[in-house]
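User: Fold this; tokens only.

Assistant: Input:
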Amino acid sequence: MIVVARLMGTYTHNLDQQNRLAIPTKVRAELGDSFVLTVSPSGEDCLLAYSFEDWDDVMQKLIDEEPSEFTMIRQRMISINTVRADIDAKGRITIPTRFMEKAGFREEVYMLGNGYHLELWAPDKFDEMLSRYKDFTENQKTYFYK
């Protein structure tokens, strides 16, 4: 499989009082009018958004794993923490309350295009993530968001 970096760049948008988040036009063009929204399976406090096509690839990898109790538990946990996100006429999605709580969203959301998926972060969680990798990025002369 060839991975094409279709989603890139960073965006910042505010949530409204109904937990609706505007999705940038460039991102909508890649994800579609409906897409998959899931809690990060890595355990990080962020959400991930995938086009249905890319989500099918993720799920196929899970299905192809050796059948085991662990595999089934992982598949169930991913399914429990995944929803369909439909973009409304104003270009917004509604984020479920439990997802808002998991990600720590309050008012502002950072969006980071990461190749074939979009990451959604609360600003403070994003800064914490970057600070965890500060030594690595400084040693590698890699430049991040800040």
